[in-house]
Specification:
- By secondary structure, this protein is α/β, with parallel strands linked by helices.
- The protein has three domains: about 5-85, Orthogonal Bundle (Arc Repressor Mutant, subunit A); about 90-160 and about 265-295, 3-Layer(aba) Sandwich (D-Maltodextrin-Binding Protein, domain 2); about 165-255, Periplasmic binding protein-like II (D-Maltodextrin-Binding Protein, domain 2).
- The chain has helices at about 5-15, 20-25, 30-45, 60-85, 100-115, 170-175, 225-230, 240-250, 280-290; strands at about 50, 55-60, 90-100, 120-125, 140-145, 155-160, 165, 190, 200-205, 210-215, 220, 235-240, 255, 265-270.
- The strands form four sheets. Strands 4-3-5-14-6 form a five-stranded mixed beta sheet, with helices on one face. The chain has a five-stranded mixed beta sheet with strand order 11-8-12-7-13. A two-stranded antiparallel sheet has the order 1-2.
- Helix 1 (about 5-15) packs across helix 2 (about 20-25) and helix 1 packs across helix 3.
- The chain is elongated and about 105 Å long.
- The relative contact order is 0.14.
Length: about 300
């Protein structure tokens, strides 16, 4: 017989004080309840109930077993309720971690559409440029750009972007334009301080060779928008994702430093904790982002 059913029958008999009332509570016959309890006692090799013609009460062993059994049954009920809730309408607080540049430029403008579509969800979007530990720091999900670190987190691709070297026309007029990767050693580079590898640029040469460029520059900062502003101001060459500088390039504020260099696409991903079931609020937001960025899922952005 099913162990949980046996356990439930026994606990209900104790709660109701007899087999008749337990049968009514469970919606099964009195003989079925008796059969479940007898099977449980036989499996455990112990008498759990004192039975008389007038009353039923737990034995000393039965009372100890009842305390543990009731906890197990309560936990099982909560687990069932959790699964039911996870498949219900999306609701509750959604905590999101996202890189500042992407959050300001691309999530903030569309978050209102999401909230209007799901009025029972409230959002706490934390913009920062550090790698957060989702579970230990209490985040439901994050949006990350580039190669994902090995982890147990699940991921879904939202879009793709590229990184290119850009600077203002005034910078090129003052310092000249680099024609080859090696020419970068003679230029002012603007660095992003949150990179784990420091002031190191990884670029691909026209031949396909992977190159590493490490030079000092006038400015190191932990914010991509600040680097773009510095590039527009003519302070140097910045290495930034396309989604950040596209408008500035369209308006003629920046130009590509070495146009012939090949670029590798960088994925933009929604990452969230592992598990068979995804919370409805998380699933709803990821599906929303996939729809919003559908035209940017393959082409470089």
């Amino acid at each position: 017989m099913d162990r949980l059913t046996e356990m439930e029958a026994f606990a209900t008999v104790v709660d109701q004080g007899g087999f008749t009332d337990a049968a009514k509570k469970m919606g099964i016959s009195k003989s079925a309840v008796s059969k479940h309890v007898s099977s449980l006692e036989a499996r455990l090799g112990a008498r759990l109930l004192n039975r008389t013609t007038r009353r039923v009460s737990p034995t000393e062993i039965g009372l100890a077993y009842y305390d543990r059994a009731r906890r197990v049954l309560n936990d099982a009920g909560e687990a069932d309720a959790l699964v039911t809730a996870m498949q219900s309408a999306p609701s509750g607080l959604l905590r999101i971690s996202v890189a500042t540049d992407f959050g300001v430029n691309h999530l903030s403008p569309v978050i209102g559409d999401f909230l209007r579509e799901y009025p029972d969800i409230t959002v706490n979007m934390v913009l920062n440029n550090r790698y957060v530990e989702l579970i230990s720091e209490g985040f439901d999900m994050a949006v990350r750009i580039g190669e994902l670190e090995d982890s147990t987190l699940r991921a879904r691709k939202l879009a793709a972007t590229t990184k290119r070297m850009i600077a203002s026309p005034s910078y090129f007029q003052r310092f000249g334009r680099p024609m080859r990767i090696d020419d970068l050693n003679e230029h002012k580079l603007l660095h992003y301080s949150n990179q784990s590898n420091g002031n190191l640029w990884k670029v691909t040469a026209p031949s396909g060779e992977k190159r590493q460029i490490r030079t000092s520059g006038w400015l190191t900062v932990n914010d991509g928008q600040s680097l773009l502003n510095a590039a527009i101001a003519g302070l140097g060459i910045a290495y930034l994702p396309t989604f950040l500088y596209a408008d500035a390039m369209r308006d003629g504020l920046v130009e590509e430093a070495i146009p012939d260099l090949p670029v590798d696409p960088l994925g933009i991903y929604a990452v969230y904790p592992p598990g068979r079931f995804t919370q409805p609020k998380v699933r709803a937001f990821i599906d929303f982002l996939v729809r919003k960025f559908a035209d940017k899922s393959d082409a470089a952005w």
